[in-house]
């Protein structure tokens, strides 16, 4: 058995208690890392945090997608971009410290590869590391779901001490915490993307919808709902009363600001089954405007009458299509038939028939 392997086996003898102590000492940083918004902010926080626990002159993080092998994120502090490119092209494939970390699935440094005098003669040292005064290097793998998904890296110069067993333990814990923070960041990013898509679909809907998140104390009303509620003096407080009342459906009277007849609005509210603190309310205004005279109404089909009423209420073709779940072209086709049957030539004339 090699000297390097003997040392590594020796690390395992007392790693349990020491690891617990390091986890307790470093755990305060987890809250700092997991609250980062996005990978860029996470990397900044990580570099600032880890420098206090594993002092080095250079640090790096490397993340890749295990399914495709493509790089997700790569950042190095303390070394030039030219070094990063040289390492990626000439060093990564032959780096014995990286190979050791991947094989052991914990932090690995140059002292576990070879004695110091032999290490200085290693090809990667002579051809790359020594040009940047990287006398000592250490790498810890990022593990997720049993797969290696990246590494965190450290380098010390000739004036700094070699990495030891304590450094390796702390680097292993730092890698675990960084990976936990990456997972949290990925989850937040996915949730934000899903929420943005959901809000976008909600905004595009022709139906007036309000989503109230009691836990987050947030509320989102789409455009039709805002148009309905903003036109009234106390509609938002009335909406709160409807939700607090716990009724599945409640009828509200919305009184417009200034003069104007009140509008009857039905509010149907229900919590999401998977998140009871999120309540979805669907608003439907019931216009008190007079309808078509019965003699004219009998000339139209049920669909034509519905479209005529919406036109008289000032709705556009796109809004009518969304409300009735038909295409705008179908709306136009029905309008031509309505105009012909009622002997009108414009939306204004059609609306006028409702005022007779």
From TrEMBL:
Key word DNA-binding present: yes
Assigned keywords, A-Z: DNA-binding, Transcription, Transcription regulation
Residue runs in coiled coils: none
Species whose genome carries this gene: Actinomadura decatromicini
An example molecular function term from Gene Ontology annotations: DNA binding
Stored InterPro entries: GAF (IPR003018), GAF-like_dom_sf (IPR029016), Sig_transdc_resp-reg_C-effctor (IPR016032), Tscrpt_reg_LuxR_C (IPR000792), WH-like_DNA-bd_sf (IPR036388)
Protein name: GAF domain-containing protein
Chain ranges of the HTH luxR-type domain: 293-356
A Pfam family annotated for this UniProt entry: GAF_2
Stored SMART domains: HTH_LUXR
